[in-house]
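step=encode ok
step=design start
structure_in=
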């Protein structure tokens, strides 16, 4: 019976995961449905199989002689980011991607009185976009994780994970096809669309965590997550511009190297338990986007032939990401009653993307208020419930004098290029999820 349940859960996760997306931009400061309920304030209080992602030291709470010796978790969330953009000329566009699923599947097994082993599968809480000029629909990431928790003593717990990020990139972007000077960067007939398809099966990472019970009523916790670098060879499809000079041109070659990074993350929290049925946690999540470099697109042997002045090889392109470190302080309250668990949390996350770099082609980000609430049934080792949340982003106005995102030009850089990200950006996230956890 149990084996059948596990198999069915894994099938459901893999089916859901087919739509899991990854844009390479800033992340929401939550991971998992219970973390969503608490708006990310789940570091010192991590205690179930989802500790694999919130703080692996919490796995040691599942050791024999404690609340349980084995644990299973299945959760599934849905993330949708609305984006509305109005350019300076009045042209409006919106994110056409309806949203996507985020799976979570984990299991843990206690070995002896101190050691717990665990493994699981999940995906980052972020989004893709789909507009007329740029598109990341079809991009997805799975994070396969193995972890261990160890009880050094009754008060001190440590944990560690090793991870592999499997990423499939599907991206379309519009570039500027300049073959000489003068080159009018506003000429729509010079727009050249590039479609990138790449899969990176090996992107290792890891995390370390610790929890310390200062008193029976106070626990401190911390987590350090390593950066992740996604890199690999893929295919590049070039859609020729409509300008007359490209009427007889043809494309040779289709290889490309695509590379970007996700930031290291540091989290810390303190959980208070003034009563047996009440938990209050304050936490801080720091995403070190300032340590992340540019996105690199390097065509390999791709060029335009049968064109005056040619052939024109496509050169390496870099999308600068001069981002800032983001900070997300959060606080949450969770009540455990007779067969019922209820919780809510709030976080405020500072923007990682400076306002002059906000653009459809890179990332839509701003300071955001994150609200979460949830709960459900809790008894006999079961937790069955869900959570909902919203992230309300501040509007971003990018004047023409401050805009800093210029179009990529793979053939030849124009003498002058006007930034194309001036305008007004409005966005919010809507998130909901269900959670099924079992200790036995």
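sequence_out=
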């Amino acid at each position: 019976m149990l084996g059948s349940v596990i198999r069915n859960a894994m099938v459901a996760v893999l089916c859901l995961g087919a739509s899991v997306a990854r844009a390479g931009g800033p992340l929401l400061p939550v991971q998992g449905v219970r973390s969503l309920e608490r708006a990310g304030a789940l570091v010192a209080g991590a205690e179930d199989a989802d500790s694999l992602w919130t703080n692996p030291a919490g796995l040691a709470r599942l050791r024999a002689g404690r609340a349980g010796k084995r644990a299973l978790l299945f959760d599934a969330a849905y993330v949708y980011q609305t984006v509305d953009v109005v350019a300076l000329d009045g042209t409006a566009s919106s994110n056409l991607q309806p949203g996507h699923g985020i799976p979570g599947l984990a299991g843990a097994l206690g070995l002896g009185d101190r050691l717990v082993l665990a493994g699981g599968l999940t995906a980052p809480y972020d989004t893709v976009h789909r507009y007329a000029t740029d598109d990341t629909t079809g991009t997805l990431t799975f994070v396969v994780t193995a972890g261990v928790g160890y009880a050094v003593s009754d008060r001190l717990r440590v944990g560690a994970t090793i991870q592999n990020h499997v990423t499939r990139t599907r991206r379309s972007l519009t570039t500027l096809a300049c073959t000489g000077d003068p080159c009018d960067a506003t000429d729509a007939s010079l727009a050249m669309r590039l479609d990138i398809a790449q899969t990176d099966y090996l992107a290792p990472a890891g995390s370390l965590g610790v929890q310390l019970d200062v008193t029976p009523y106070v626990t401190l916790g911390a987590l350090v997550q390593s950066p992740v670098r996604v890199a690999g060879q893929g295919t590049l499809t070039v859609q020729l511009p409509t300008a007359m000079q490209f009427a007889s041109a043809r494309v040779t070659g289709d290889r490309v190297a695509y590379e970007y990074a996700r930031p290291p993350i540091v989290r810390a929290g303190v959980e208070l338990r003034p009563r047996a049925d009440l938990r209050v946690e304050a936490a801080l999540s720091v995403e070190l986007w300032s340590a992340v470099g540019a996105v690199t697109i390097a065509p390999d042997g791709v060029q335009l032939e049968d064109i005056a002045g040619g052939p024109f090889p496509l050169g390496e392109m870099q999308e600068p990401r001069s981002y800032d470190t983001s900070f997300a302080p959060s606080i949450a309250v969770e009540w455990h009653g007779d067969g019922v668990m209820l919780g809510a949390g709030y976080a405020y996350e500072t923007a990682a993307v400076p306002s002059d770099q906000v653009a459809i082609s890179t990332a839509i980000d701003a300071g955001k208020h994150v609200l979460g609430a949830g709960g459900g049934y809790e008894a006999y080792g079961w937790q069955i419930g869900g959570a909902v949340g919203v992230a309300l982003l501040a509007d971003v106005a990018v004047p023409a004098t401050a805009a800093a995102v210029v179009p990529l030009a793979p053939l030849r850089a124009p003498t002058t290029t006007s930034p194309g990200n001036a305008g007004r950006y409005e966005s919010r996230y809507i998130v909901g999820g269900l959670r099924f956890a079992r200790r036995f």
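step=design ok
step=annotate ok -> The CA atoms of residues 47 and 61 lie 6 Å apart.
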